[in-house]
């Protein structure tokens, strides 16, 4: 028996089989503050129907509509933003269609685009890691089927401005533009309002980062109602489980906690940049919940030493543009202090 050639050629997203629960996890941009206490309270006392019955989404859609300013028929919740990406690739992409992506960029777009049979057009970042806007404008001239933009991007931290995004939407009016705004809370702004004006725009949000609900798997698609109807055809009818709905509604009810997390992350990034500079390590301040650290040619060795201290970071050494770099999630001060202490010890004379 054979599988699709486009799938056979893929490599699966790497998931380590080793437990991460006993370690300081800075590698996947998880929120190390944890979720709002209101979420845990709500999950501790669910209604029996939240478990026994198929989930209902009406109240969650009302809350998301109120937050976004878009009618509920412009919204679809999915089993994480990753599954939202799968949905849109399944709806729009046929064998041979062109999909434009950054290089490097978020690998889930690559995986689902290739699985759908797409031809990838990769727009390379330059050494300054500025978002390659001119390359996207040039690619738009060929009217690709889909253009994917992550704002801000990961792992580079590159940022397309709102003005540039609007220019791209207008230059590529016959292409689907997907804007992944997973980190928008840390950026401090969203372009979701543009959905009302541009029918070719799809915006993705997630509860995984600022709301710290990565384990619950809740994503959101915002776009025009016609697209939403097509996404519903390929999205399982109850893809987001009942307890995830409970968690999302509780998280949305605690703005104070969300704002405090974003405030501390922003402050800690500034502190960490200064601390790493004192260690001779350049840090790039991504407008997200992570930093890029240039630790140099010994990055593989440093990565292994951190693992021995039960600290996991994202080692980007296999990416040519980012050789010698780590991507590190920024969390509460105590987590950051533990990481700093380990890096100071590694950097002592005779230890490197």
List the keywords.
2 domains, single chain, 352 residues, seven-stranded mixed sheet, Aspartate Aminotransferase, domain 2, alpha/beta, Aspartate Aminotransferase, domain 1
Outline the structure in words.
It is a single chain. The chain is 40% helix and 16% strand. By secondary structure, the protein is an alpha/beta fold. The chain has two domains: 120 residues, Aspartate Aminotransferase, domain 1; 201 residues, Aspartate Aminotransferase, domain 2 (3-Layer(aba) Sandwich), CATH 3.40.640. The strands form three sheets. It has a seven-stranded mixed β-sheet, sandwiched between helices. Strands 9-10-13-12 form a four-stranded antiparallel β-sheet. Strand 5, helix 8 and strand 6 form a beta-alpha-beta unit. Helix 2 packs antiparallel against helix 11, helix 5 packs parallel to helix 6 and helix 7 packs parallel to helix 8. The termini are far apart.
Layout of SSEs?
Layout: H1 5-8, E1 24-25, H2 37-44, H3 48-52, H4 58-68, E2 75-78, H5 81-92, E3 98-103, H6 107-115, E4 119-124, H7 133-140, E5 146-150, H8 162-171, E6 176-180, H9 184-187, E7 201-206, E8 219-222, H10 225-234, H11 242-252, H12 255-278, E9 282-285, E10 290-294, H13 299-308, E11 311-312, E12 314-315, E13 325-329, H14 333-347
Count helical runs.
14
Fraction of helical residues: 40-55%
Counted up, domains total 2
Strand order of the largest sheet: 2-8-7-6-5-3-4
CATH class of the largest domain: Alpha Beta
The number of strands is 13
Strand content: 15-25%
Average the pLDDT over all residues and give the rounded result: 95
The coarse overall form would be globular
Query: What is the CA-based Rg, rounded?
Result: 21 Å
CATH names the topology of the largest domain as: Aspartate Aminotransferase, domain 2
Structural class: alpha/beta
Main β sheet profile: 7 strands, mixed
CATH architecture of the largest domain: 3-Layer(aba) Sandwich
Cα end-to-end separation:
51 Å
Low-pLDDT runs: none
């Amino acid at each position: 028996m054979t599988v699709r050639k486009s799938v056979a050629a893929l490599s699966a997203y790497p998931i380590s089989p080793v437990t991460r629960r006993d370690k300081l996890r800075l590698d996947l941009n998880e929120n190390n503050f944890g979720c709002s206490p209101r979420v845990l309270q709500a999950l501790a006392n669910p209604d029996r129907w939240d478990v026994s019955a198929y989930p209902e989404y009406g109240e969650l859609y009302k809350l998301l509509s109120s937050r976004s300013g878009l009618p509920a028929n412009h919204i679809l919740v999915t089993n994480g933003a990753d599954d939202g990406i799968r949905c849109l690739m399944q709806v729009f992409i046929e064998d041979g269609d062109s999909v434009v992506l950054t290089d490097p960029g978020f690998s889930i777009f690559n995986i689902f685009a290739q699985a759908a049979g797409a031809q990838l057009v990769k727009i390379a970042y330059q050494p300054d890691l500025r978002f390659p806007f001119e390359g996207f404008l040039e690619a738009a001239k060929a009217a690709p089927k889909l253009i994917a933009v992550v704002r801000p991007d990961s792992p580079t931290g590159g940022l397309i401005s709102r003005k540039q995004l609007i220019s791209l939407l207008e230059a590529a009016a016959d292409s689907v533009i997907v804007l992944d705004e997973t980190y928008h809370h840390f950026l401090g702004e969203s372009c979701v309002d543009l959905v009302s004006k541009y029918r070719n725009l799809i915006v993705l949000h997630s509860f995984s980062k600022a709301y710290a609900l990565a384990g619950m798997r809740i994503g959101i698609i915002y776009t025009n109602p016609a697209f939403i109807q097509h996404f519903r055809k390929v999205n399982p009818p109850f893809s987001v489980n009942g307890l995830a709905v409970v968690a999302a509604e509780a998280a949305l009810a605690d703005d104070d906690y969300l704002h405090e997390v974003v405030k501390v992350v922003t402050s800690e990034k500034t502190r960490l940049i200064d601390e790493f500079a004192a260690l001779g390590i350049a840090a790039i301040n991504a407008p997200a919940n992570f930093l890029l650290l240039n630790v140099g040619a010994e990055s593989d060795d440093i990565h292994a030493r951190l693992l021995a201290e039960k600290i996991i970071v994202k080692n980007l050494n296999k990416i040519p543009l980012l050789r010698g770099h780590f991507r590190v999630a920024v969390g509460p001060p105590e987590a950051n202090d533990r990481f700093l202490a380990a890096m100071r010890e590694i950097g002592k004379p005779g230890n490197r």
